[in-house]
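Chain A, query sequence.
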Amino acid sequence: MSAIIKPLMLSLSDVPDDAFGGVRLRRYQAMVRKCTAPRILVSAPTGSGKTLAYLSRALKPSEGEPYHTLIIVYPTNALIWDQTQALKKLLTSVFNLKVTTVSADNLTDLEEQPSEGDVMLLVANGETLAALAQEAKSSEGSAFFRVLRREFDTRIILTNPDILFYLFLYRFARQESLIQALLHEKPPNMLVLDEFHLYFGYSLANLVYMLTYIRDSFDQIIFGSATPIPIDELIHEKFETIVAHPSDEGQVAVHGYTIGTQPIPGLIGQDEIDRVVQAVEKMYNKHISNPQKVKVLVILNSVLSCVDLQHKLDEKYPGHVTPIHGLVPLTARPHTQEEFGDIVVGTSAIEVGVDFDTASLIFEATDSSTFMQRLGRGARHSECDVQAYIPALYYPRLTQFLTGTMTQSQLTEAIREALPKPETYLHFPYSKQAAPLLQALYLNWVYKRPAGQRTLSIGQAEREMCELYQRGSFNIPTELVPLAQHAFTTTPDACVHKMSHEESLRSTLNSIPAIFSSYDPPIFDYVSLPELPKLVFRVKSAEEVTASSLKIPCKMRFESVFLDVSGIRRNPPRLCVSVNINKYSDKPRPLYGAIVTHDPVDKELEQEVWKLVKGQPAIRLESARDWRLTGLQICRGGGYLVIGGDAYLAWYINENLA
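Chain A, predicted structure.
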């Protein structure tokens, strides 16, 4: 079943001052440019020009002075690299500014670059900070500080939420100087949280806690989202919402396309790869003479499915396939459109914001949010053919809607009607079930902040945390006071202490650090608990990794456990966990039980997975109602055991949404 989707039009501003640099701002972009509200939600479709809206507000505001520091937080490194190129182009062509870029791939001539000027565009991710530290023979924090000391009229810093969170947790050397140089020396400052709709649960709670502490350092905070979000439930402040409404006239924001759907049993795995290969062949043959550089773009859920698909396509089209996923080093990935092959195969690493000019798009999606996110990779520059794979359960309902010619708004409504919409759990961060997360955050400060670099026992850490709380040393923001009061009326349990030592923005077992040692040089990336049966690996401590002369990248510098991955299993077993279900029904408790494999049995895998999950917070749900929650099926008694930081969100679901 297929449908023809009309182009999406957005109206243009009719104010003469909103035309500059050969560009006339769209109406919603002009509204952002003149908005002086300290908190703004910008809701605009993917590909509609939110980046230009941010820059117009920061560099050429209708009212007030330009911003000295603009920090844009992107959820993925792939999006950071893509936006680096897009921002540089806008800054030079539209704003007529001279740009000095500081990133991991251009440090060889760093000392020869200007130390002052119009704009410094700094890519502040783990790769760049590690490269800066190596270049300067210092720590990442000291190297970061030296770059920030350069005198530019404007500093635009592109980073990910993890780096910002590490700053918040006092994980860098020269921390106080770093924060002073970043936020306080030369205001005004602006913070942009792009693709904000992608955060949920555990990561959203930690992001909210961080924002309550750092918000006063910014004169303006902009939340960018592809869908409207009631952010007042999160930030407890007044904010202004600016929406990019479709129009019957104006400028094309998203081109038209033809879309078809196909059912699959669940997720695309090895059994469905041949179907995807056939779809790629069909699209490639149809569009081989099209002018677009990329003829076929494929986005799948699993890295391992991408690897399988890549190998099969390489056999048919040698030299024409470009992979973009966690097993491809950033240095080996294309940085410009010209470097892509005819066929691009990737995972969620490219679903968020990466700007492709592609003739056709093939993707899988299990919910409405992922569907719309991946659909936004197509029709950005020209018309496009789209093929979507969705679970067979939802296929009949969606095909009822996909008929004839539709507007993009009608398609969006059809997708939201037919496919499940992932919960955002906006009330979770302030719920009593989230109190242990706040406890873990404060305990982390006690354990890790540089007060003499002491090693504290559990009892000492708890006593010191309570003393600091009673003295008011945590400077708890007003909206966190009720949650903190609840947190400090209970003694931290073993789960809280474990989380405090593993504190990060993301849930523990959703992002497990791994070394793919079969590559030369070895590649560091994250894998999730559900992917473990597909991997041949050993669990290693950080000390074992460094002892083998491997340098742990900045983004993983605070991890204590790694997977040493030596290969991929072609016949992965099924995993389940054997526990006393009554013990894990009321609240998260440390996991004790056993990992069981079957079809086939693999005792070695059971032992290695158990090393990772033992003692992690765990709680039972009746079913895996949200695929984003990390866990395992329970072997006997039924249900799904959510493991890691996500267990607290599952507790919230049991108490409030069951």
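The mean pLDDT is 88. The two ends are 35 Å apart (CA to CA).
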